[in-house]
Amino acid sequence: MLNLEFAGMGLFEYDGEWIHPEKTEKTFELIYVLDGEVYIKENDRYITANKKDLIILSPGIAHKGFKKSESNTSFYWIHFYADKLDLQMPYHKEYFNGSYLFRELNHLSNLSDEKCPKYILDAYVSYIIARLIVEQNQHQSAQKITDEIYEWVRVNVDARLTVNKVANHFGFNSEYISKITKKAFGVPLKGIINMFLINKANDLLLNTNLFVSEIGEALGFASSTAFVNYYKYHQNITPTQYRNMYSKTHMNKK
Questions:
Q1: Considering the chain, what is the average pLDDT of its residues?
Q2: Hey, which end of the chain has fewer CB within 10 Å, N or C?
């Protein structure tokens, strides 16, 4: 259960060169960048935060700027107390979509206690942190899933393996599974399947004496021609040309 207490906040704006001074706070400090770039170092971690990025710094640990911001630096800062945070610290979230929350909180924090009791400010901070924890857990869960998908495709790849088959195996639809693999690895699932299939073909071409037709059959292609056409499309050479490129070898008995 989150147990957070709001301690204060404000809006920092500076036009010109600026660098964050060295500080050690008693509270957690949250920075939400509105404009410019903020360069912060805590322990051995260097963070460059751009517009809409969010940083959380730890209490009792010195932090400081490691580079000057050139101009028009603007960010909200929030100080708060917490027993602990289930976040990887120092925390850096790229593009936090919730800038309105900081404007609302900044407004409320300047009202009297009668118009805005402190528990409301605590609740705002708790909500922001809770969102960050949920997003971090979702990211870690997604990473675990994509790692499993990657390894399963590597082990089971052949010409019959399709995006739909992988999606069905993991209980996802094909559009979603391609989206998460592209986000994790930079290429969609179809590209990962092709990569492993070509790798497997290359291994058989260079490390066995199988005929090209036999390799195509071992990889699940309907015919030798289908394998050659597939390979040439992805590699711009035929399987035989690839094998002949690396035909020289050195052998010894001692």
A1: 90
A2: C
